């Protein structure tokens, strides 16, 4: 059973809203400025821990998943290059964590609503993001048992979402 105390995004969500115009222009200045403020000092970091949800606006009429759109993937990659602290701040109450990872890794939709990640790439990004998470936990003096519990929840998100590529008509 997921620990609700590790999920402040349920009661007090905060949204990082990225517009289609930002994605198409490749200008990540504003989102990066906001993200850097989150991690700028221990008090702010702790205040926003686990509360941030990522919303990419302007693609509701596009039948593709966000990870299938090259410009979205490039934009998320640009954010990630300069700010790797997703696991500390992203809410576990929605698909924000999976959105970031699916845009960074080769991902395919195996059936509608179910995606398969390239596991080698996923391992590399998980290692990068957990390293950043652990550094930030130490910097803000988060109790080790809390950091471990959050890590376990994030791992559980991926275990529950893990799907091998399906073989057969239309899935190979």
Description:
The chain has 172 residues and is mainly alpha-helical. It has one domain. Helices cover 51% and strands 11% of the residues. It has helices at 20-25, 29-38, 42-48, 70-82, 86-89, 96-104, 119-139, 144-161; strands at residues 14-18, 52-56, 107-111, 114-117. Helix 4 crosses helix 6. The longest helix is centred in the C-terminal third of the chain and has 21 residues, at 119-139.
Q: With helices defined by DSSP (H or I, 4 residues minimum), what is the helix count?
A: 8
β-sheet strand percentage = 5-15%
Q: Poorly predicted ranges (pLDDT <50, ≥5 residues)?
A: 164-172
Placed side by side, the strands forming the largest sheet appear as: 1-2
> What number of structural domains do the residues give?
1
Order of helices and strands: EHHHEHHHEEHH
Largest sheet: 2 strands, parallel
Structural class: mainly alpha
Termini separation: 35 Å
Quaternary structure of the protein: single chain
How many E-type strands? Answer: 4
Radius of gyration: 16 Å
SSE topology sketch:
Layout: E1 14-18, H1 20-25, H2 29-38, H3 42-48, E2 52-56, H4 70-82, H5 86-89, H6 96-104, E3 107-111, E4 114-117, H7 119-139, H8 144-161
Parallel strand pairs: 1-2
Antiparallel strand pairs: 3-4
Structural descriptors:
single chain; 172 residues; mainly alpha; two-stranded parallel ribbon; two-stranded antiparallel ribbon; 51% helix
Quick overview of this protein structure:
The protein has 172 residues and is mainly α. The protein is built from 8 helices and 4 strands, in the order E-H-H-H-E-H-H-H-E-E-H-H. It has one domain (4-161).
